[in-house]
Specification:
Layout (H helix, E strand, L loop, with lengths): L1 H11 L10 E6 L14 H20 L12 H14 L1 H4 L3 E7 L2 E8 L4 H10 L6 E8 L13
């Protein structure tokens, strides 16, 4: 019984974008596509991630792979670059429902696409944005079925 109460308390914990990672929707054509959880997390999850984010953030600087002192210092510029890339390629996104999260120099694209070729094509476009180290598309093809990402709780 105590375990069930603890689980219930955890589920009631508010979700927050503790690290201010850019998170935004770029398209909304597929009705019913679940909104991803994106960078939202509980305070307990924030504590778990804080050390690894700090370590990951400074590793690129220490390795001489960044001109900024932290991987996460690129996030805002990358987010603006992704927005510009989507605007410049609007035709490719007109039949999708997608959200973007930028964490460090990694772009996560989540949502729904009309066909299986769209995910890799969108990853390739995101990789052209300056400073992006990796782009990962986790997308559902079509209007039904499970999504391959954590959806926002209802």
């Amino acid at each position: 019984m105590l375990a069930l109460c603890a689980l219930g308390a955890h589920a009631a914990e508010p979700l927050k974008n503790w690290f201010d990672d850019p998170f935004f929707q770029v398209s909304s054509a597929i009705e019913g596509c679940p909104t991803p959880l994106g960078p939202l997390m509980t305070e307990a999850e924030r504590r778990v991630q804080a050390h690894s984010r700090a370590e990951r953030g400074t590793t690129c600087w220490l390795a001489g792979q960044c001109d900024r002192p932290n991987d996460f210092a690129y996030s805002a510029d990358i987010a603006e670059g992704v927005r510009a890339m989507v605007a410049a390629n609007a035709k490719r996104f007109e039949r999708t429902s997608l959200w973007v999260t930028v964490q460090g120099r990694v772009v996560f694209i989540e949502g729904c696409v009309p066909d299986a070729r769209a995910g890799p094509a969108i990853e390739a476009l995101a990789m052209k944005v300056p400073h992006v180290k990796q782009a990962i598309a986790s997308v559902r093809v079509g209007r039904s079925g499970q999504v391959p990402y954590k959806p926002m709780p209802r």
